[in-house]
User: Which sequence fits this backbone?
């Protein structure tokens, strides 16, 4: 009997306190400190990609790159050894430290207030070298690549002790210099003169005190939805300037007259999306709206603009199929591209075939083969 009374009492306490606590609104939880800060972008921490070399092997390299020195460290991390062992009799050397393998990388958000930061020390003190950046813009008339370098002495005097250096990115990557920070390729190192020198560079990184950009809150499929398909939009933003919460109302409105075709409430997906966006994410579900037409979405929260327009209908992908087919047709060679199949860029064939100079049948070509299996030179030249 005592056990039954004890169990009943515990159940009573659990019910009472659960009711008292009530539902917890996790959407009001906070993201970790500094979650929206632009992250440090390491060019070299303990590994890197790139190339280094000199005309007569004056620059010390390992497999075509600067050696990573695990014996000379700072803050328990290795360094890059930039070591010109003898006078540069070949008159040239270059070091390329790639940002994204050999691809371009967008550092435009970092440039306005950011820095190229690293630790450096010399073998003897007083060493000099150039440091800067190179971009890669294939369509630039003045040249595909542009390089800007600065003397290290503009920012520090190298000693035999480690010291921290901060070079403003505006000195080496600013658009006013002709650089394209959307297409940054690498950090580069070069000589000031032909004299030998040796320095170590540690924790080379791009930094900025700025925050990640905020983007329009409503993310919706701009092509649209089939009438019977699942329909939803994501509504998301950084919690420090995002005013939507669980239960915030949204509307799907007709473009034709701005009337409301559907309304609902936002559903929480992630209070803090730690893996992808760093945002608080909600979902606006409107699967029940099946009426064909053109729509846009609004949310009843300050600072959230209306979504792009989209369509609902069973023919929404027709134009995509037409465009894809037309794209393949536009690539055809040896024919005229004419209406009604080519509506935008009709053209005459500029490489007509010469039917008076037809290829020989395959059995004739086989007979013409040499005994060793190779083709006569006249056929190869064709």
Assistant:
């Amino acid at each position: 009997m005592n056990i039954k009374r004890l169990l009943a009492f515990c159940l009573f306490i659990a019910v009472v306190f659960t009711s008292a606590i009530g539902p917890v609104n996790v959407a009001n939880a906070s993201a970790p400190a500094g979650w929206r800060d632009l992250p440090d972008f390491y060019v070299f921490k303990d590994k890197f990609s790139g190339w280094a070399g000199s005309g007569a092997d004056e620059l010390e390299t390992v497999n075509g790159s600067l050696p990573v020195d695990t014996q000379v460290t700072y803050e328990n991390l290795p360094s890059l050894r930039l070591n010109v062992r003898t006078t540069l009799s070949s008159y040239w050397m270059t070091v390329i430290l790639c940002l994204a393998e050999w691809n371009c990388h967008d550092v435009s958000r970092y440039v306005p207030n950011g820095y190229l930061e690293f630790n450096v020390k010399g073998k003897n003190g007083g060493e000099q070298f150039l440091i800067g950046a190179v971009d890669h813009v294939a369509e630039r008339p003045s040249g595909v690549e542009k390089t800007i370098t600065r003397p290290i002495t503009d920012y520090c005097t190298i000693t035999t002790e480690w010291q921290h250096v901060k070079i403003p990115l505006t000195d080496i990557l600013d658009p006013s210099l002709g650089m394209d920070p959307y297409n940054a390729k690498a950090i580069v190192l070069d000589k000031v003169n032909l004299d030998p020198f040796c320095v170590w560079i540690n924790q080379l990184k791009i930094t900025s005190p700025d925050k990640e950009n905020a983007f329009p809150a409503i993310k919706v499929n701009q092509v649209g939805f089939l009438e019977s398909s699942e329909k939803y939009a994501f509504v998301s933003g950084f919690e420090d300037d995002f005013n939507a919460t669980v239960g915030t109302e949204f509307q799907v409105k007709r473009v034709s007259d701005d009337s409301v075709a559907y309304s609902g409430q936002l559903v929480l997906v992630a209070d803090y999306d730690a893996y992808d966006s760093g945002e608080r994410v909600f979902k606006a579900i409107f699967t029940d709206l099946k009426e064909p037409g053109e729509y846009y979405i609004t949310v009843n929260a300050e600072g959230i603009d209306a979504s792009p327009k989209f369509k609902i209908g069973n023919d929404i992908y027709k134009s995509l199929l037409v465009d894809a087919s037309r794209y393949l047709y536009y690539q055809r060679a040896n024919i005229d591209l004419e209406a009604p199949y080519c509506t935008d860029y009709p053209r005459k064939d500029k490489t007509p075939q010469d039917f008076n100079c037809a290829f020989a049948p395959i059995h004739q070509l086989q007979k013409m083969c040499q005994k060793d299996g190779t083709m006569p030179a006249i056929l190869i030249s064709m």
